[in-house]
Design goal:
alpha+beta, Ubiquitin-like (UB roll), globular, six-stranded mixed sheet, 6 strands
Length: 125
């Protein structure tokens, strides 16, 4: 019997990269950068993925990170796009509610319009 792997695709935009990835690291949620190659113009930002066997996916921990990250600054938003094209704005939802949306997500956009406090490249030291 084969096990299924769940993958969460996160699109992080400019000012969300450093703080959101640090929040994932603090919660011990493993993630990895996806390198995209295209001959056409792309939206700025990076793509990270979280993958695990379906029964080992840290849905609860990820939901808590998302809610805490949004609540830390008014300029933050997380948009969960489902496979059927619906968009859910995570702001205002509880971690329990967000946890229900994550398994049906196709991609998650992580946005902080707050400016330079969170901008810059992620430190590798």
């Amino acid at each position: 019997m084969s096990k299924q792997v769940s993958v969460v695709r996160l699109s992080l935009f400019k000012d969300s990269q450093v703080s959101f990835l640090a929040a994932l690291d603090d919660a011990n949620i493993q993630h990895q950068r996806v390198h995209l190659f295209s001959s056409g113009a792309q939206a700025s930002g990076i793509v990270e993925t979280i993958s695990a066997l379906s029964d080992a996916m840290p849905w609860n921990a990820l939901a808590k990170v998302i809610v805490a990250w949004i609540d830390a600054r008014k300029s933050r938003e997380v948009l969960i796009q489902t496979a059927d094209g619906k968009t859910i704005h995570a702001k205002g939802y509880s971690a329990e509610d967000v946890q229900k949306f994550l398994p049906i997500s196709a991609t998650i956009a992580v946005i902080d319009t707050g400016g330079s406090e969170n901008s810059g490249a992620r430190s590798t030291t």
